[in-house]
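Hey,
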Amino acid sequence: MNILAIDTSGPTCGVAVLSGDAVRYSAMVLNKRTHSVNLLPMIDAALTASGLTLADMDRLACVVGPGSFTGVRLGVSTLKGLAHGSGKPCAAVNALEALAAGAGDFDGVICPIQDARAGQVYGAAFRSGAVRPERLMPDTPIRLEDYAAQLRTLGERFLFVGDGMPVHRGRLAELLGESAVFARPSLAFLNPAVVAEFAAAVEAVDYLTLMPLYLRAPNAERNKKLMEAAAHA
């Protein structure tokens, strides 16, 4: 199976091509350019370097969230356009689940977290699995203290990965002590090759049904509701 996978859900922009059991291409950038500037040239470079075209792909995959509202929208809309033009099916990849899958085997609870600001994280919890990680906790926007309290009911050792790991490392160490294990710095970011591998294990969908995964309303929507409530007060 040939898969083109993209990720714009977090700080990095990533593209990978998987062909059968081999990663043909994988690249991830963290620079001052926006994902909207990086993404299409990276897709073109991935296809050129792998010697494949969109017509050769069996499915197109992207990370649908949770993550940056703008980044997720960009990734999903780009994939929809590529799928519409090529007639290829899509695969929706959950960012937190893919982060857990990329953490490898761990004898404990794998805890992918993204910084959601305002004292919150987007968090979940998993155990290592043969094909996909075993989910122990749904994706949720949650205060760090409440997240740590829920984790204590799931196990005794906790491996943290994701871009929320370096941001909240100090506080998590305070809350969980020696039970908290922090992954190497590279696991703060979602590996696009893992996204491609993960996409092979999920059900393909039509591009019309591919939708972003938002755990809370965008700031603009929340602000609009606050203004409407104030106007009716």
